[in-house]
Amino acid sequence: MKSYRKELWFNTKNRREFINITPELSRCVQESGIKEGLLLCNAMHITASVFINDDESGLHRDFEAWLEKLAPEKPYEQYHHNGFEDNADAHLKRTIMGREVVVAITDGRLDLGPWEQIFYGEFDGKRRKRVLVKIIGE
DSSP string spanning 32-83? Predict the structure, then answer.
Protein backbone atom coordinates (compact mmCIF):
# COMPACT_ATOMS: atom_id res chain seq x y z
CA MET A 1 0.00 0.00 0.00
CA LYS A 2 1.19 3.52 -0.86
CA SER A 3 0.76 6.65 1.22
CA TYR A 4 0.80 10.32 0.22
CA ARG A 5 0.68 13.45 2.41
CA LYS A 6 0.44 17.11 1.51
CA GLU A 7 -0.61 20.33 3.23
CA LEU A 8 -2.63 22.98 1.41
CA TRP A 9 -2.36 26.51 2.83
CA PHE A 10 -4.96 29.28 2.71
CA ASN A 11 -4.92 32.93 3.73
CA THR A 12 -8.38 34.34 3.11
CA LYS A 13 -9.10 38.03 2.63
CA ASN A 14 -12.37 37.78 4.55
CA ARG A 15 -13.35 36.41 7.95
CA ARG A 16 -15.63 33.84 6.26
CA GLU A 17 -15.13 32.23 2.86
CA PHE A 18 -15.90 29.01 1.02
CA ILE A 19 -13.17 27.86 -1.38
CA ASN A 20 -13.65 25.02 -3.85
CA ILE A 21 -10.56 22.82 -3.35
CA THR A 22 -11.66 19.97 -5.63
CA PRO A 23 -9.12 20.85 -8.37
CA GLU A 24 -6.24 20.91 -5.87
CA LEU A 25 -7.34 17.57 -4.40
CA SER A 26 -7.60 16.05 -7.89
CA ARG A 27 -4.00 17.17 -8.52
CA CYS A 28 -2.98 15.51 -5.25
CA VAL A 29 -4.53 12.24 -6.43
CA GLN A 30 -2.56 12.51 -9.68
CA GLU A 31 0.67 13.32 -7.81
CA SER A 32 0.15 10.36 -5.49
CA GLY A 33 -0.02 7.83 -8.32
CA ILE A 34 -2.68 5.96 -6.34
CA LYS A 35 -5.37 4.41 -8.55
CA GLU A 36 -7.59 2.75 -5.93
CA GLY A 37 -7.84 4.00 -2.37
CA LEU A 38 -9.10 6.75 -0.09
CA LEU A 39 -8.44 10.46 0.25
CA LEU A 40 -8.82 12.12 3.64
CA CYS A 41 -8.87 15.90 3.73
CA ASN A 42 -9.23 17.64 7.06
CA ALA A 43 -8.95 21.15 8.41
CA MET A 44 -6.00 21.56 10.77
CA HIS A 45 -7.56 24.53 12.57
CA ILE A 46 -10.58 24.51 14.87
CA THR A 47 -12.23 27.46 13.16
CA ALA A 48 -12.14 26.00 9.63
CA SER A 49 -13.97 23.18 7.90
CA VAL A 50 -13.78 20.81 4.96
CA PHE A 51 -17.09 19.64 3.54
CA ILE A 52 -18.78 18.36 0.38
CA ASN A 53 -21.65 20.09 -1.35
CA ASP A 54 -22.76 21.81 -4.56
CA ASP A 55 -20.70 24.67 -6.00
CA GLU A 56 -23.59 27.09 -6.36
CA SER A 57 -23.27 30.70 -5.21
CA GLY A 58 -26.88 30.95 -3.97
CA LEU A 59 -26.36 27.89 -1.80
CA HIS A 60 -23.17 29.40 -0.39
CA ARG A 61 -25.08 32.57 0.54
CA ASP A 62 -27.73 30.32 2.14
CA PHE A 63 -25.02 28.56 4.18
CA GLU A 64 -23.71 31.93 5.35
CA ALA A 65 -27.18 33.17 6.36
CA TRP A 66 -28.07 29.88 8.07
CA LEU A 67 -24.79 29.68 9.99
CA GLU A 68 -25.11 33.31 11.07
CA LYS A 69 -28.60 32.58 12.47
CA LEU A 70 -27.31 29.55 14.36
CA ALA A 71 -24.12 31.18 15.66
CA PRO A 72 -24.08 34.94 15.07
CA GLU A 73 -20.68 36.60 15.13
CA LYS A 74 -21.93 39.56 17.19
CA PRO A 75 -22.43 40.63 19.87
CA TYR A 76 -19.10 39.14 20.92
CA GLU A 77 -20.02 39.25 24.60
CA GLN A 78 -22.79 36.68 24.11
CA TYR A 79 -20.13 33.93 24.21
CA HIS A 80 -18.22 32.73 27.27
CA HIS A 81 -15.25 31.83 25.01
CA ASN A 82 -14.76 35.39 23.83
CA GLY A 83 -12.30 37.21 26.03
CA PHE A 84 -8.90 37.39 24.43
CA GLU A 85 -10.45 36.32 21.11
CA ASP A 86 -13.66 37.11 19.28
CA ASN A 87 -14.13 33.85 17.41
CA ALA A 88 -16.53 31.69 19.45
CA ASP A 89 -18.97 31.79 16.54
CA ALA A 90 -16.28 30.36 14.24
CA HIS A 91 -15.78 27.36 16.53
CA LEU A 92 -19.52 26.66 16.49
CA LYS A 93 -19.79 27.10 12.70
CA ARG A 94 -16.92 24.66 12.19
CA THR A 95 -18.65 22.10 14.39
CA ILE A 96 -21.79 22.37 12.27
CA MET A 97 -20.00 22.17 8.89
CA GLY A 98 -17.60 19.39 9.89
CA ARG A 99 -13.89 18.78 10.16
CA GLU A 100 -13.11 16.46 7.25
CA VAL A 101 -14.16 14.47 4.23
CA VAL A 102 -13.18 11.01 3.06
CA VAL A 103 -13.56 10.33 -0.66
CA ALA A 104 -13.00 7.11 -2.57
CA ILE A 105 -10.43 7.07 -5.34
CA THR A 106 -11.42 4.88 -8.28
CA ASP A 107 -9.33 4.46 -11.41
CA GLY A 108 -7.05 7.32 -10.29
CA ARG A 109 -9.86 9.87 -9.83
CA LEU A 110 -11.95 11.25 -6.99
CA ASP A 111 -15.18 9.25 -6.96
CA LEU A 112 -17.63 12.10 -6.38
CA GLY A 113 -21.35 12.30 -7.12
CA PRO A 114 -22.65 14.37 -10.07
CA TRP A 115 -22.73 17.74 -8.29
CA GLU A 116 -20.38 17.06 -5.39
CA GLN A 117 -17.43 19.38 -4.87
CA ILE A 118 -15.07 19.65 -1.91
CA PHE A 119 -14.79 22.95 -0.04
CA TYR A 120 -12.57 24.60 2.50
CA GLY A 121 -14.79 26.64 4.82
CA GLU A 122 -13.12 29.48 6.67
CA PHE A 123 -14.95 31.02 9.64
CA ASP A 124 -12.18 33.09 11.27
CA GLY A 125 -9.94 34.11 8.40
CA LYS A 126 -7.45 36.77 7.47
CA ARG A 127 -4.59 34.59 8.62
CA ARG A 128 -2.68 31.59 7.29
CA LYS A 129 -4.29 28.18 7.84
CA ARG A 130 -3.90 24.71 6.39
CA VAL A 131 -5.64 21.50 5.52
CA LEU A 132 -4.10 18.05 5.48
CA VAL A 133 -4.45 15.77 2.48
CA LYS A 134 -3.70 12.09 3.16
CA ILE A 135 -4.13 9.48 0.44
CA ILE A 136 -3.69 5.75 0.92
CA GLY A 137 -4.14 2.92 -1.52
CA GLU A 138 -2.58 1.07 -4.41
Answer: HT-SSEEEEEEESSTTEEEEEE---HHHHHHHHHHHHHHS-S--GGG-SS-S
Distances (CA, A) of 51 to 25, 40, 74, 75: 13, 11, 25, 27
Number of CB atoms found within 10 A of residue 98's CB: 14
The pTM assigned to this predicted structure is 0.96
Q: DSSP string covering 75-135, please?
A: -GGG-SS-SS-S-HHHHHHHHHH-SEEEEEEETTEE---TT-EEEEEESS-SSEEEEEEEE
**Cα–Cα distance, 101 to 119 (Å, whole number):** 10
pLDDT in tens, 25-57: 999 999 999 999 999 999 999 999 999 999 999
